[in-house]
Amino acid sequence: MNELPEVRILLVEDSPTDALLIKEALSDVLDFQHRLIHATLLSDACSKIQSSQFDIVLLDLGLPDAQGIGTFRTLQQHAAQLPVLVLTGLEDMSVGLRAIQEGAQDYLSKRDISSSELGRAIRYAIERHRIAIALKESEERFQLAVRGASAGLWDWNPQTGAVYLSPQFREIVGYEVHELPNDHQLVLDLIHPDDVERVRTQLAEHLAQRCAYEIEYRIRTKTDEYRWIHARGQALWNESGEAYRMVGWIIDVTERRLADEALRASQEELKRLSANIQRAREEEKTRIARELHDDFGQQLAALKIECAKNCSLAGNVDPTTGSIDMSNVYALIDQMVVSVRRIATDLRPAMLDDLGLLPAIEWFIERFSSRYAIYVVQHIDADDIDFNDDSSTAVFRIVQEALTNVARHAGASRVTLEIARSNPHCVVRIVDNGRGCQNGLRPSPGSFGLMGMRERVAALSGELTVRTAPGQGFALTVLLPLSAVETRSP
């Protein structure tokens, strides 16, 4: 126990003889120094408490202006923050015990009091009172924190099944304090039938393996409504490894769960909308590509034939050369045919629809390498992946856009393309040996390539990551769930 500084004592005693005995006993106490103030009336003592500071009160229960347990009660009203030692005669022992029950630290008989006993009682009374005040303040802080967090406490003995539920716990489930008894099984019965086994399993794992206990589940309220709660808890184990106590809390997270569900629904709706836009865009590109290839291409071919026919019928009409030279016209028409085919192919490669994704990618890479003189190393091991129409288009466009970005911005001479199954994903990875950039840089507002790739990946519930550093090129990795990539059975 810590050494006490000077102890300020208020002695409330009307008997001069008893007061002298106590003063003499205090003079022999060697544990601490003291300063004693003496009052003979309770009213006088209460006035002194209001005007001065004391560490402890020594109180006689038989005073001219107060008698018995009422003396202590009156003093408590004026000095609830002070520890009190009750002084009794032999006939007052029962009253002394009553005073302890109502908050006094101890009682001493005035007839056989000793300096050692008095010193010990004063030290212990001050220390116990200090601990009690600290405990009360800690409890108040804890209660304020719990109420501020709207948390409901529970305290459970796994060995006996005894449980305590705080008023806030009952409030969360809509019950008054007297309406929901402290019954462990009754609390389990409130858990949603679809969640109760999950709760039991995690609780058992916490007790047996000492892993964290933190879970969200639904609980039935008094109105038969189910609310989502977030629960946490911690057990205590004895030396034999047996859990003998578990304490935790719950908070109502229904509004957050509803907001999360609304957000997920909104995100899913945006994904569907984005997928529909991508699909409509691809369908429109396909339509335009076919019209360019079939209608416009055929019209150009017909124009070339018609020019040739008219030229043969016209005869020699050029007064300077004596003949008609249509070579420039033919060359221009040929260029237009090539341009129309290239534009149609860029809009939607017919090979993607006719032969499938992997042959279309190989054709595109050959065309890409020829056009940009960039060598592409292919590691394509995806023959066992049954790509559906949406994923075929998405993967082709991702590869197309990524390689186009390499050609335009990377300054690379070599690219590695990987497409493979890595359960439960299809992995698409494009790595170049270009100049790279700072990893934290974002694409410029006008850079729609990466944005378009992210939209396509999101539409298939996938993930896209980019890793880069100055001088180390770009590494783009796409993970697509096979469940979204492969053709679904009818």
UniProtKB/TrEMBL annotation:
Entry GO CC: membrane
Sites bearing 4-aspartylphosphate, chain numbering: D60
Coiled coil: 256-283
Annotated ranges, domain PAS: 138-210
Response regulatory domain: residues covered: 8-125
GO MF annotation, one: protein dimerization activity
PROSITE patterns registered for this protein in UniProt: PAC (PS50113), PAS (PS50112), RESPONSE_REGULATORY (PS50110)
Listed NCBIfam families: sensory_box
The protein, known as: PAS domain-containing protein
Domain PAC: 213-265
Stored Gene3D superfamilies: 1.20.5.1930, 3.40.50.2300, Histidine kinase-like ATPase, C-terminal domain, PAS domain
Species: Paraburkholderia azotifigens
Keywords: Coiled coil, Kinase, Phosphoprotein, Transferase, Two-component regulatory system
Keyword Kinase: yes
